[in-house]
What we know:
This protein is α+β, with helices and mostly antiparallel strands. The protein has helices at residues 3-13, 51-61, 109-120, 126-130, 133-153, 156-179, 185-199, 201-204, 211-229, 247-260, 268-284, 288-308, 313-337, 347-359; strands at 22-25, 43-46, 70-75, 78-83, 97-100. It has a five-stranded mixed β-sheet with strand order 1-2-5-3-4, with helices on one face. The protein is extended.
Amino acid sequence: xxxxxxxxxxxxxxxxxxxxxxxxxxxxxxxxxxxxxxxxxxxxxxxxxxxxxxxxxxxxxxxxxxxxxxxxxxxxxxxxxxxxxxxxxxxxxxxxxxxxxxxxxxxxxxxxxxxxxxxxxxxxxxxxxxxxxxxxxxxxxxxxxxxxxxxxxxxxxxxxxxxxxxxxxxxxxxxxxxxxxxxxxxxxxxxxxxxxxxxxxxxxxxxxxxxxxxxxxxxxxxxxxxxxxxxxxxxxxxxxxxxxxxxxxxxxxxxxxxxxxxxxxxxxxxxxxxxxxxxxxxxxxxxxxxxxxxxxxxxxxxxxxxxxxxxxxxxxxxxxxxxxxxxxxxxxxxxxxxxxxxxxxxxxxxxxxxxxxxxxxx
Length: 362
């Protein structure tokens, strides 16, 4: 790397070199999809030598930096400052460099890991220092459900906040493990990085697969080989599905995994016939135990129907629950506006309010 070129850049900019700086040959980003460095540090890209490379760099930077972020383009002792969105690919040469100021405090994963470690340090937060894997378990579950609720709402600002809360739980748990000399957050990242590469040979290797079905079938083959290599031959295909999953999600995951190895109806008519069969079994049930069992079978069959129609059963039911809550609240409010108690309304009156709620799009 030409450090003299880097020095000349700051001479042209008439600013002292920052105390922390990332130096990269621009060509090293030619196959990148996101900036491969922490954006809370200033970066100098050396050798932006073509309009094609310039356009690619711009698209990569826009995944992380705001479009109005200022970038200094330096070449032949001259420089100009442009907003990232407006940058073109003119006047590119081996001497052309881009200086990208730091995005701002707290914008990198590394800085976030540091602040979480500080919470657990002797001069950190008394509450955070007392936490264990077990005490944080309920918070991890709560944050997961809140993130799901944000997804269901379609509110992107809410999603961003809830994903941050969920990330805190992951990093905090990893920090506790690090203090116990078990593993650290970098090993967590490395582990999932390796798993993704290993399980996507059709992306990171030469394997050719036929569509999504081919990908999923190969996925199960790879996981089976992993279990064998890890001495877990006794584990079955469904053993990796968490017992604590909500029942609808668990049922759909069981069915998905079984289908990947060919255990599935050949046509959807078989699924519909099974639903009809289970309804008839409910009618014939003679004891409470039989009734509960047959209702469970019907729910399982309905989840299978949702899977065949590519509908997430858990999300579908959550959506219906939300719709019911809104419509029933409308019925309650309508009764109050008429100075009536909800329990005093007839079924016909409640049904009329319910239909009004439907007409209002609730």
